[in-house]
Structures are given as structure tokens and as C-alpha cells.
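User: Please write out a complete single-protein record containing the residue sequence and its fold in C-alpha cell form, without commentary.

AI:
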Amino acid sequence: MAARLKLVVVGDGGCGKTSLLLVYAEGAFPERYAPSVFEKYSTTVQVGSKTVALDLYDTAGQEDYDRLRPLSYQNANVVLICYDVMSPTSYDNVLIKWYPEVSHFCRGVPLVLIGCKTDLRKDKEHLRKLRSSQQEPITYTQGEATCRQMNAEVYLECSAKFRENVEDVFKEATTIALNAIKKAKRQKKQKRCLIL
């Protein structure tokens, strides 16, 4: 029987969560932005010799859904916190909003930090808009620093539009979740084996 994991993806509205999930689960990049409320995608991933069934939960990043979103966290095996590398606000919200929320509702669940839309770092129009407000794209080094600050398992970047590192994001998240399950089982066994 294949293992089944629940991966929950959070982040600001428009940061690239849904595109990342759609490209991975369905192979299609959405051409227009359509905010999602709550969506579930199911797919499988091969990790070594193991086939793992994934239930991927897309959550709403908008404030209107702050009270509903925690319902999607129940029984999560790993949480992906996403931000848009071209949005300093989205990046700041990782530590201001998403990390505190996920830490509260998902104690002990491994976290993965994802920088989305990396293709836009080279897009002249997006760079011009950012610089017109005296801002710069978020760098890989900044993402790594935030990853350490929130004690996430790993920091990864991707471009759903060009399918760059999309597979890696989900393989890595799956491996992290499987390792956390193994570790929890070992700790449970050790607790049972008390010699007096």
C-alpha cells in the first residue's frame, strides 16, 4: 500500500501557490489569476522505490479567510509556506503572518519555505515597477536567512511558469514528511521500551 501524505500550501494571495500546485498536479499553468478559496489536488510522487500519494491543499491567502484556513491544517504532514520573490510584502508576511499562524496550528509539523515566481527576477517590466518604489527582488540569500529564522527544513525556489524546480519542491517536501513520520515512530517505540 502506498503512503498517503497531506501537504498544505499557504502564503499571500497572488504569491504563486495555486500556479505551483496546478503545474505539479495537472501540468497546466493558469494564464489568468483566479483566487482560490480552498482546493485539493491529488497526485503521486516517486521517492526512491516508493510511490507516495499526495493530497495537496491550496489555501486562501486573503484576510477574509483567516478564520476558515486553519481547518485545512488538520493532520498535515508538511506545510509549504510560499512567497513571491518580487513582492517584499509577500516576503515580509512569511514572518509576520504565515509562520506564526502555521506554528500555532501545526505544532511539530515540518515546514518548507518556497520562493515563487523566480522567472520574474529577470523581467524588465516587473523590475522597473519594483525599483520605481525603491524596492528590489528578494534574493536567494534572504530566503535562506528567513528559512533559518523560522527553523524550516529547507528553502527552495521555483518558477511554475517555466516548470523550474517544481518537481524538486514536491519531492523534497515528500521526503521531509516521510522522514518526520519515521522519526515520530522511532520516538514512540523508544517511549514504550522502558526498563525499570
Observations:
- The first strand starts at residue 3 and ends at 11.
